[in-house]
Specification:
about 190 residues; six-stranded antiparallel beta sheet; disordered C terminus
């Protein structure tokens, strides 16, 4: 897969912060496009092959925003059983949010084989203001990335806050999100 050149590490953080401030007081009709742009920046900064936002709907993980997945046959709107996804593994605490080499864990039987060539994997829940888990923001590379750090996960978490804001804004505008699958409230993940 083609790798993207990294950004200045603060560019993504600044962009997300600006978007969170801009949407704090009302509906932003351009928020979907902004999230897509942030995902592309995230993909570039972390040098990941695929980045996406998933929603948990009736036992399925549905891709709502996607960048880079087409090469692997992944597209916005696609769905798969939630139980077999790394998204579910992360939200239920059976997998850490940051994995530098998922292939090693699959080989040792510690993670399920998803059928995709996943090396490095980062995932974090999108938690709505009422504590419900909407889904996740995830990214992965087909190669291992031992250089990934907690600061990379912090960028992903900021993106998850932006997505939660988008869902909240849409709900206030009369477009209620699909009811997420019930999961315990996520706390203490700073």
């Amino acid at each position: 897969m083609a790798h993207l050149e990294p950004l200045d590490p603060q560019s993504l953080e600044v962009k997300i912060s600006e978007l969170l401030v801009a949407t704090a007081d009302g509906h932003d009709p351009y928020l979907d496009r902004a999230i897509s742009e942030v995902l592309q920046l995230l993909r570039r900064q972390l040098r990941m092959d695929v980045v996406f936002v998933s929603e948990f709907v009736e036992g399925e993980r549905v891709f709502r925003f996607m960048r880079g997945g087409e090469v692997l046959g992944l597209h916005e709107g696609d769905s798969a059983p939630l139980e077999s996804s790394y998204c579910h593994q992360v939200v239920t605490g059976r997998m850490p949010e940051l994995v530098t080499n998922a292939a090693d864990l699959v080989a040792r039987g510690e993670l399920p084989d998803t059928g995709l060539p996943i090396g490095a994997h980062l995932s974090t829940p999108v938690v709505l203001p009422d504590g419900r888990v909407y889904g996740t923001v995830c990214c992965f590379s087909t190669a291992a990335k031992p250089e990934l750090q907690l600061s990379d996960l912090a960028c992903l978490r900021q993106c998850a806050r932006l997505v939660a804001r988008k869902v909240e804004v849409a709900a206030h505008a009369g477009f209620a999100p699909t009811e997420p699958a019930p999961f315990p409230e996520i706390t203490g993940q700073g």
